[in-house]
Amino acid sequence: MRLPSLLMSVPAFAPGTPGYQAIVDHALMTTRGVRQRLDFDRDVDDQIILDCIDVAEQAPTGGNNGSRRWMIIRDQQTKDRMAELYLSAGVDWVIETAKRLEGSGHQNERLMAGARHLGENIARTPALVIPTILGRHDGSGRPGLFDSVIQSAWSFMVALRSRGLGTVWTTMYLNEAPAVAELLELPDHVTQICLFPVAYTIGTDFTPTSRRYPAADIAYFDRYGRTKSQSGPGVVDEIDLKAKPEAVRAAIESLDVPADAWRFDLEQVPGGSRVRLHAPVGPSDDSSTVLAEVRRTLDTLSERLKS
Amino acid sequence: MRLPSLLMSVPAFAPGTPGYQAIVDHALMTTRGVRQRLDFDRDVDDQIILDCIDVAEQAPTGGNNGSRRWMIIRDQQTKDRMAELYLSAGVDWVIETAKRLEGSGHQNERLMAGARHLGENIARTPALVIPTILGRHDGSGRPGLFDSVIQSAWSFMVALRSRGLGTVWTTMYLNEAPAVAELLELPDHVTQICLFPVAYTIGTDFTPTSRRYPAADIAYFDRYGRTKSQSGPGVVDEIDLKAKPEAVRAAIESLDVPADAWRFDLEQVPGGSRVRLHAPVGPSDDSSTVLAEVRRTLDTLSERLKS
Ligand SMILES: Cc1cc2nc3c(=O)[nH]c(=O)nc-3n(C[C@H](O)[C@H](O)[C@H](O)COP(=O)(O)O)c2cc1C
Ligand SMILES: Cc1cc2nc3c(=O)[nH]c(=O)nc-3n(C[C@H](O)[C@H](O)[C@H](O)COP(=O)(O)O)c2cc1C
Fold first, then answer.
1. Is B213 close to A66, i.e. CB distance below 8 A?
2. Chain B residues whose beta carbon lies within 8 Å of the beta carbon of residue A213
């Protein structure tokens, strides 16, 4: 697939214009992980998937090499076997948890219900797609290898979205990666990245999620932890604590905080809570000094929770 | 930044419509790595970068956790020091190579000239942006950790593009990652992903690159190496050889190939050549049998080049 060259000269295709920007932002911000609203009954043409791969292949790649290979699973018997592996990789346990959370109001109830729905129906997905890359990661702690394929896999998701289809990035199945490799006859030098169940979505009215930090809180200027917001410069530091948010909340209230304008953000993370403490930096303040105070406060918090 | 809720109900914002799809495809397919056409003389507002981060943060993230932190370098002294580290990480050597390739017509001449131009001017870039993620990779060979940040970094690039800005994904600087971490005061548990020099682009008329494989050649159906093209099913296998493309081309011509319809693709890769051999699978053929023949042929090719 090639972009019609005509498109290139149409004003709507001018990056920097508000219409272009709004549509691109919309696509990037509303490509959700879809599980409950995959249409398992509507077929997907091979060509649509190939078109999305052609779009995806334009993503950047280290050294300009094309080392991605894409598996598309359409055969029902193979899908059935993939579904078994998908479950035995840990999704069977997710389904049990989802049953337990049903009606509990737990923050992950909806996510788990979606994962259950997908797990129970994955063999009915019109197509399963696995992006792979030639090579093995060197274990160096650097992204190398993965950073020439993950961009492409994400483009694939956004290209599906632009066509009214959807999917969800799944990796739990990688617990069964060797069995999947055997089933699909992947050579040893091929690394699997994720599994995409691909289908039309039921409706296309997905919206941005509120479960992300605002950029102004996690973008640091020149030195780590230094923020700029509309109200001026600030610093932020954070700590992960092995305690429930309620316990942390109580401990925060017992703290003697230097200034009223300090703001604590509290979030549940696996194994405990994450606390982020923001402090404004006034015109006569030194940001390193304020940051040191913030760190001390978080350390105190951590100690209080231990005792 | 939030998408105006009004947008959600405007027909132009309907995924699945041709206009929406064409613009999203255009953005995903024309977000090139830009080096020569970065406008070092036009300033970029902080808010544009923060907006692009807000777009980027909507990318999928494992377990719904928000563990990305973004460094934005604006201070000239810090940029100057970053430029030194950028060069000492290996770009100084790239610049020497670029000088040598100048006018040679080598396939990487343009790429290297671009890398040189960027290397010589990087301190003039309006902003340097480094996406990071909390945590260290477990060395498991799985993408985990990187797959909750690389999508976001790519969204950032596309969001810049939609606003008429550009950048290039650079990782060579990671050879100096510890010095960069010290300069920017990154804590030990933070992993750097890449460095983006951010600027307006000079013109916005970037186009898709032809240096990618067509999807039909690298998308495999149900079993690795099984392709479908408009002319019917086929198989493909490939081999990397430590020999120059010309030598490989000669060896290919000496082969006794079972069918005329077999197609060899030859590409230069670091350290040698990659040969891809495509063979059609007729209605009475078994694809595994044809694939075995293809493999044998590639093995023969490899042996001939050794002797
Ligand atoms: C993982 C990765 C690492 C890269 N590292 C560098 C780099 O260190 N320096 C550079 O100039 N370009 C770098 N690039 C940019 C690539 O050279 C560029 O994306 C590729 O040539 C394809 O060109 P395109 O982005 O225009 O499609 C990198 C790209 C990726 C994806
Ligand atoms: C690296 C990664 C791994 C994921 N693994 C799974 C998975 O195994 N199963 C699943 O149902 N969802 C998985 N997801 C989807 C996330 O749960 C989902 O993207 C996240 O909750 C954010 O929701 P959103 O995509 O709607 O923004 C994964 C996402 C990422 C990025």
1. yes
2. 57, 66
Q: pLDDT of chain B along its 307 residues, tens only?
A: 556 555 555 666 799 999 999 999 999 999 999 999 999 999 999 999 999 999 999 999 997 678 999 999 999 999 999 999 999 999 999 999 999 999 999 888 998 999 999 999 999 999 999 999 999 999 999 999 999 999 999 999 999 999 999 999 999 999 999 999 999 999 999 999 999 999 999 999 999 999 899 999 999 999 999 999 888 999 999 999 999 999 999 999 999 888 788 999 998 888 899 999 999 999 999 999 999 999 999 999 999 998 7
Q: What's the A15 CA to ligand 1 centre distance in angstroms?
A: 21
Mutation target for B interface from A222, A235, A239: give the one with most B CBs within 10 A. A222
Structure letter (DSSP) for residue A123: G
Q: CA B289, CA B112: separation in Å to the nearest integer?
A: 44
How far apart, in whole angstroms, are the C-alpha atoms of residue B110 and residue B87? 19
Give me the number of domains chain B comprises: 2
Contacts of B297 (CB under 8 A, 6+ apart): B255, B257, B258, B262, B277
Output the domain CATH number for residue B131: 3.40.109.10
Chosen domain end from A201, A236, A252 = A201
DSSP A212: S
Contacts of A12 in chain B (CB under 8 A): 19, 23
Could you give the 3-state DSSP secondary structure of residue B211?
A: coil
CA A201 to ligand 1 center in whole angstroms: 33
Report the alpha-carbon distance of residue A267 to residue A281 in Å, rounded: 24
Residue B146 CB–ligand 1 contact under 6 Å: no
Rounded Cα gap, residues B145 and B147, in angstroms:
5
What CATH number did the domain enclosing A265 receive? Answer: 3.30.70
> Is B257 in the same domain as B281?
yes
Q: Does any domain span residue A23?
A: no
Residues of B in contact with A164 (CB under 8 A): 15-16
Inter-chain CB proximity A15 and B22 less than 8 Å = no
Tell me the C-alpha to C-alpha distance, in Å, between residue B27 and each of A228, A276, B158, B164: 29, 35, 7, 11
Q: Which of B54, B55, B64, B67 has most ligand 2 atoms within 8 Å of CB, for mutation? A: B64
Q: Are residues A35 and A91 in the same domain?
A: yes
Sole residue written with tokens 């709507």: A12
A23·B28 Cβ contact <8 A: no
Distance, in Å, from the CA atom of B218 to the CA atom of B236, rounded to the nearest integer, reads 9
The whole-angstrom separation of Cα B154 and Cα B146 is 12
Q: Which domain holds residue B261?
A: 215-306
Please give the single-letter amino acid code of residue A77: Q
Q: What's the CA gap between B307 and B302, in Å, rounded?
A: 9
Kindly give the residue spans of alpha helices, DSSP state H, lying in A57-176: 76-86, 92-101, 109-121, 150-162
Q: Whose alpha carbon is nearest atom 25 of ligand 2?
A: A33
Residues A23, B211: Cα–Cα separation, whole Å: 27
CB-side neighbour CA atoms (13 Å) of B9: 2
